[in-house]
Amino acid sequence: MTGLHTGHTAVRNNGLVRHLYAEDVTLAEVLKTAGYATGGFGKWGLGEETGPGCAVDQGFDEWFGQYNQGHAHFYYPYFLMNGKERYPLPENEGRRQVRNAHDETHRRALDFIRRRKDGPFFAYLPYILPHVELTVPADSRREYEDKFPRISRADPRPGYLGSDHAYAEFAGMVTRLDRHVGEVTALLQELGIAENTIVIFTSDNGPQPGAWKDIFVEFFSGSGSYRGAKGDFYEGGIRVPLIVRWPGNIAAGTMSDHPCVFYDFLPTLAEVAGATLTTSTDGISFVPVLLGRESQAKHEFLYWEAPASAEAYTQAVQYGNWKLHKFIGNKPVELYDLATDPAETRNVATENPDVVAKIEAIMSRERTPERKYLPDERKLGAHSFVK
After folding, report:
1. Is the pLDDT of residue 255 over 60?
2. 272, 344: one domain
3. Does residue 378 have a pLDDT over 90?
4. Is residue 22 part of a domain?
């Protein structure tokens, strides 16, 4: 949202009290300067309705979905957020599975596109499918019930739903998301704006590990041939799909090996929209790659950081084909040559001290201290969202 890597941006991880302030400039605010209507539908982890980080205070004309990270863990909460107001779902009280949060959010997203079809619009759809809780409406699960072995999986966290057919449940979640992406593209065709709309599909991280590792990572090969999963900076945790449809500009079936990162999206979409950037960014527009040009600028390095607290954090930097991991505590650093070892199985740090020193200097230079928040700024607990 801010075009900054996680050594610079205000929000660097879930948890604690982390949100945007009024002075932070988001992608939605940048696009509004170019005349775009802006709508967000799904999960927003950058501030709640009572603080300055709320989506409708950060450039979105409207927002429907879930602000709090804990709230977004539940598919059948008793309310969603419409702007700064609660949108009640009383049918779900008592953990009844009646009105699905993702389905409600998806309907609102389609409605926004219909209402804004005559002018430029930015529809941001950070849907919560697939995610834990491990549950999906029966019409999506049913087609897989006879295709996979039946295993039960209870969620180890209090108040969360589990599944009596975990493989079918997860496959149904992925299929439901796929179907709803298809409904978005079909709507663009129906409205006659498909040829003038860029559609971007991507994911925020690799597959869910922990209690669900055997399902998401192992059974469904969620990380492919790569090491790691969500929460890691190994390739399995950060290398995700990026699919772009831009009729007349991108030929169907074209592929690129250009490495880009999420902080590239702000300058990229600003360039597409003709918006002027008045704020600094760590990103580089990848419009030349989208248009098939040979003049694409590339990053000198890619930076990742995840704090476990305000003082303790892990870092990773990719510098050319080299990738260095630096961990909390006294664990030795790990260095991999992605050209010969993309699965990151052979730590070659001791053989390449000069490379380690160069990348550690980048890590030190690029990291600014994480923002300190006021002590009275609080987040609600996940228990507040189910009855």
Report:
1. yes
2. no
3. no
4. no
DSSP three-state, residue 235:
helix
Q: What's the structural domain count of the chain?
A: 2
Other Cβ atoms within 10 Å of 54 Cβ, number: 21
Query: 7, 303 in Cβ contact below 8 A?
Result: yes
Alpha-carbon dihedral angle through residues 37, 130, 203, 126, given to the nearest 10 degrees: 20
How many angstroms separate the CA atoms of 290 and 294, rounded? 10
Domain hosting 105: range is: 27-295
Helix (H, G, I), strand (E, B) or coil at 240: coil
CA distances from 214 to 134, 211, 225 (A): 13, 8, 15
Cβ(48)–Cβ(71) below 8 Å: no
Fill in the amino acid letter for 328.
Answer: I
What is the 8-class DSSP label of residue 105? H
Q: Do 226 and 353 sit in the same domain of this protein?
A: no
Q: What is the CATH number of the domain that holds 33?
A: 3.40.720.10
Amino acid at 175: T
Within its chain, how far is the Cα of 188 from the centroid? 23
Q: Look at residues 183, 188, 179 and name the one whose alpha carbon lies nearest to residue 113.
A: 188
Distance of CA 269 to the CA centre of its chain: 17
Tell me the pLDDT tens digit for each residue of 156-207: 888 899 999 999 999 999 999 999 999 999 999 999 999 999 999 999 999 9
Given 295, 320, 338, the domain boundary residue is 295
Q: Is 310 exposed, middle or buried (0-12, 13-18, 19+ CB in 10 A)?
A: middle
Tell me the residue type at 161. L
